[in-house]
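Hi, here's the filled form for the chain we discussed.

Project: internal
Contact: R.S.
Residues: 135
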Amino acid sequence: MCHSTPVLPFSVSIEAGKSPYRQIVYAATKAVVSGELTPGSPFPSVRELSQALKINPNTAQKVVAELVRDGLLEVHPGIGTVVTTKRRATGAERRVLLSSDVEALLVDAKRLGLTRDDVVSAIDARWTDLFGDED
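And the returned structure, exactly as it came back:
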């Protein structure tokens, strides 16, 4: 007997000690705002989300409801849930999504005894390595 696990169109790793609900909302929001999930693309059903992430269906429903309420998803009866085509992410929304990653970087840098200038210099150098001189 073969069982297939639905594949999510975004990545999320559930970390122990943190709210799975919050982590999933964050990952899905980041995927939509970054363009990883394009407008009009299908979003997993509550059942698929629940099965793929091994979470309670009520939690999956709560995730979808929040994303709909935030205007990131649209529910189309008979079609399913899709990424909204009615809005574009703002620069402020994209910056907010980085805040937890930036905080983790800064905490690690402080633990390593680095200064603000060290961190800014390291980011600038890495940016240049990856993207050249583009801003």
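Let me know if anything looks off before we file it.
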